[in-house]
UniProtKB/TrEMBL annotation, chain A:
<keyword id="KW-0472">Membrane</keyword>
<keyword id="KW-0812">Transmembrane</keyword>
<protein>
    <recommendedName>
        <fullName>DUF1468 domain-containing protein</fullName>
    </recommendedName>
</protein>
<feature type="domain" description="DUF1468">
    <location>
        <begin position="26"/>
        <end position="156"/>
    </location>
</feature>
<feature type="transmembrane region" description="Helical">
    <location>
        <begin position="92"/>
        <end position="122"/>
    </location>
</feature>
<dbReference type="InterPro" id="IPR009936">
    <property type="entry name" value="DUF1468"/>
</dbReference>
<feature type="transmembrane region" description="Helical">
    <location>
        <begin position="60"/>
        <end position="80"/>
    </location>
</feature>
<feature type="transmembrane region" description="Helical">
    <location>
        <begin position="128"/>
        <end position="147"/>
    </location>
</feature>
<dbReference type="Pfam" id="PF07331">
    <property type="entry name" value="TctB"/>
</dbReference>
UniProtKB/TrEMBL annotation, chain B:
<feature type="transmembrane region" description="Helical">
    <location>
        <begin position="62"/>
        <end position="84"/>
    </location>
</feature>
<keyword id="KW-1133">Transmembrane helix</keyword>
<protein>
    <submittedName>
        <fullName>Tripartite tricarboxylate transporter TctA</fullName>
    </submittedName>
</protein>
<feature type="transmembrane region" description="Helical">
    <location>
        <begin position="464"/>
        <end position="487"/>
    </location>
</feature>
<feature type="transmembrane region" description="Helical">
    <location>
        <begin position="202"/>
        <end position="225"/>
    </location>
</feature>
<dbReference type="InterPro" id="IPR002823">
    <property type="entry name" value="DUF112_TM"/>
</dbReference>
<feature type="transmembrane region" description="Helical">
    <location>
        <begin position="414"/>
        <end position="443"/>
    </location>
</feature>
<dbReference type="Pfam" id="PF01970">
    <property type="entry name" value="TctA"/>
</dbReference>
<feature type="domain" description="DUF112">
    <location>
        <begin position="20"/>
        <end position="439"/>
    </location>
</feature>
Length: 162, 506
């Protein structure tokens, strides 16, 4: 008896169609600004005596010029950039949580702060509260045991000693 | 034929108990990470890099582990492509074309088996080629002057723009950003601070692990948040098992695909996805009268999988022999070597034979392990497709950050990693490729050092850059590669306006 065929796999979620050249032009301007900054900052590098004929500023200047040229090319011929599925707030919440993590990981210790971070990310990935709490409660102590205790990589300990 | 003697020495390293265990761990971890939804080879290595470094493994052991993860993920990536029609990385798109129809006909197990055999054939034959090619190549490069190296690195970077799928200007800008990031910190030649913005934390330069984790792992998670990959149950199917006759029918395909994959892999800049596409279209054209390609032909599964793994190994040739990585993943491997103060390149084979030959020998061992692991256990790895997003991605981020912290003991590096993650996320949405950033970062110091050394030798006369025939040829090739997209632009303008530029017909 032949096995029933597999159901048709769901196709990828369609990406939103790009609409305007604005993102590419904004990117080009940003890159142009970066190039100008790099070149300007490189000109300030002075060495008391010439150890080698090139010095520290030639290379950043050249790369800055190439970056500027690439940015100009992009500005003149922008593509249709920015793929978006239109749920930016989840990303923003996660970025905020990750930034906060960098500040709390030493004072709070690895286990507590990592559990909080995992909770936020699990919720952002549409986990229910129970699922997210489970993910946080297993991931943080599990990693601490594996990395700090088994593999002997020191992770920050909080006021409670873990 | 001293390659055999060196290889024997390499096997002595690769078969040491610790290294054997690490190769096994790497193979399992690589297959698992490759199979997990949304995580490809680059993420696999980026995630493990800081941990490996913090564990203070000897360099050859670290490299054996990371390389096993690298080629192991090539075996894992096909599972989702075949069973669920979800390619986890660009190279796996071609595998879906015939692999998924086979799965829908109930022959998912057979498709996975032939792709495993193809991966093994492509990888192992390529390691044989690597064994015999890298020493002559590195010997030819021993005579390279600093000026020749400048030309070689210029050529490698220019190829990126020529083969880039997207906008060439964005590729160039990305490479420049990588080069600028490499300059952050104290200039080795003069002791001047560059681009440190007056901070102490940046004096030592940007840590490679921070860049890799941020750009790849963190940005991947942010991207997945917008369009999450749904976890799904999958079945291997109960259709006919793979027959010996089918394997025999794939042998010529595998041999041709290995050739294509290896050659494409050796060229810097051209990655595994190009190799997979080229080998698939070659096989399709050769077997046109059968009309079975695209409907579940075993050869259509074997071709891209063989070429993919052959190209992965081919990528290692310029990395080991010349010190010039050809792909994002080998750039990360090179970054790992540089963290150990080992400079790959011509002298690696003579100065650190245990690293070079230990790695090569371990690739023979690792691929046998992977074949043995993958044929019977593929069902187990396929279960990983069911791991839900809310369990997997918090773990990935926690592991990333633990790795960054363990490698540097600094929470500033965590902020930096998040910053790179946000930048990488934006760049991906804008179509700016990330691989040139890593390549530029890794090659930046090498390029500047050689440039300054060359100009010191000539007392500042730039003509030294064109003094040797090697450099003249390389600069000519570089110029061609730079002008290639411009020529393409011309042609596209002449062509019908309906045809998007850069897309091959068919």
């Amino acid at each position: 008896m032949p096995a029933p065929p597999l159901p048709e796999a769901a196709p990828h979620p369609p990406r939103a169609l790009p609409r305007s050249t604005l993102p590419d032009r904004a990117l080009a301007l940003l890159l142009l600004l970066l190039a100008a900054l790099a070149i300007w900052s490189a000109q300030g590098l002075v060495v008391p005596f010439a150890g080698d004929p090139v010095g520290p500023k030639a290379f950043p200047t050249v790369i800055g010029v190439v970056l500027g040229l690439a940015a100009l090319a992009l500005l003149l011929r922008p593509g249709l950039g920015w793929e978006s599925a239109g749920r930016p707030w989840r990303g923003i919440v996660c970025i905020a949580a990750m930034l906060a993590y960098a500040f709390i990981v030493v004072p709070l210790g690895f286990i507590l702060s990592t559990a909080l971070l995992c909770l936020v990310i699990a919720r952002a990935f549409a986990g229910s509260w129970a699922q997210s709490l489970l993910a946080a409660a297993l991931t943080a102590p599990g990693l601490f045991l594996l990395l700090d205790r088994v593999l002997d990589l020191p992770l920050p300990r909080g006021p409670l000693g873990f | 034929m001293d390659a055999f003697g060196h290889l024997a020495g390499g096997f002595a390293v690769a078969l040491a108990p610790l290294n054997l265990l690490l190769a096994l761990c790497g193979s399992v971890a690589g297959t698992a990470i490759g199979a997990l939804p949304g995580l490809g080879p680059l993420n696999a290595i980026a995630l493990l890099l800081p941990l490996v470094f913090a564990l203070k493994l000897p360099p050859e052991s670290a490299l054996i582990l990371l390389a096993a993860v690298y080629y192991g993920s090539g075996y894992g990536g096909r599972i989702a492509a075949i069973l669920l029609n979800m390619p986890g990385e660009p190279a796996a798109v071609l595998t879906t074309l015939d692999g998924h129809p086979m799965a829908r006909a109930g022959r998912g197990g057979a498709a996975l088996a032939i792709s495993g055999i193809g991966s093994f054939a492509g990888a192992t034959l390529s390691v044989v080629l690597l064994t015999f090619l890298s020493v002559p190549l590195s010997r030819a490069a021993v005579g390279f002057s600093p000026a020749d190296y400048v030309a070689l690195i210029g050529f490698a970077l220019s190829l990126l723009g020529a083969v880039a799928a997207g906008n060439a200007a964005k590729t160039w800008a990305a490479a420049c950003l990588g080069l600028l990031l490499a300059m952050v910190g104290i200039d080795g030649g003069t002791g001047v601070e560059r681009f440190t913005f007056g901070t102490v934390e940046l004096l030592g330069g940007i840590d490679f692990t921070v860049l890799a984790i941020g750009l790849f792992a963190v940005s991947e998670i942010l991207l997945l948040l917008e369009s999450p990959v749904a976890a799904a149950a999958s079945h291997l199917g109960h259709g006919a098992r793979l027959t010996l006759a089918e394997i025999r029918r794939c042998v010529p395909t595998m041999l041709r695909s290995t050739g294509i994959g290896f050659v494409i892999g050796v060229l810097p800049g051209a990655g595994a996805s190009i190799a997979a596409a080229l080998s698939y279209s070659t096989e399709k054209r050769l077997n046109e009268r059968d009309g079975t390609f695209g409907r579940g032909d075993v050869r259509g599964v074997a071709a891209p999988e063989t070429a993919d793994n052959a190209a992965q190994i081919g990528n290692m040739v310029p990395m080991l022999a010349l010190g010039i990585p050809g792909s994002g993943t080998t750039a990360v491997l090179l970054g790992a070597l540089l963290m150990y103060n080992i400079t790959p390149g011509p002298l690696l084979f003579t100065q650190r034979p245990e690293v070079a030959w230990g790695l090569i020998a371990s690739m023979y061992v690792g691929n046998v392990m992977l074949l043995v692991l993958n044929l019977p256990l593929v069902g187990l790895f396929a279960r990983l497709l069911m791991v839900p997003a809310w369990a997997l991605y918090p773990l990935v981020i926690a592991l990333s950050f633990a790795g960054v912290y363990a490698a540097s003991n600094s929470s500033t590096d965590l902020l930096l990693a998040v910053g790179f993650g946000v930048a990488g996320w934006m760049f991906r949405k804008l179509g700016v490729p990330l691989v040139p950033i890593v390549l530029g970062f890794v090659l930046g110091r090498l390029l500047e050092d050689n440039l300054r050394r060359a100009l010191s030798l000539s007392d500042g006369d730039p003509m030294i850059l064109l003094a040797s025939p090697v450099s003249v040829v390389l600069w000519a090739l570089t110029l061609t590669a730079i002008l290639w997209p411009v020529i393409g632009l011309w042609k596209a303008r002449g062509a019908a306006p309906g045809a998007p530029p850069g897309c091959p017909p068919g």
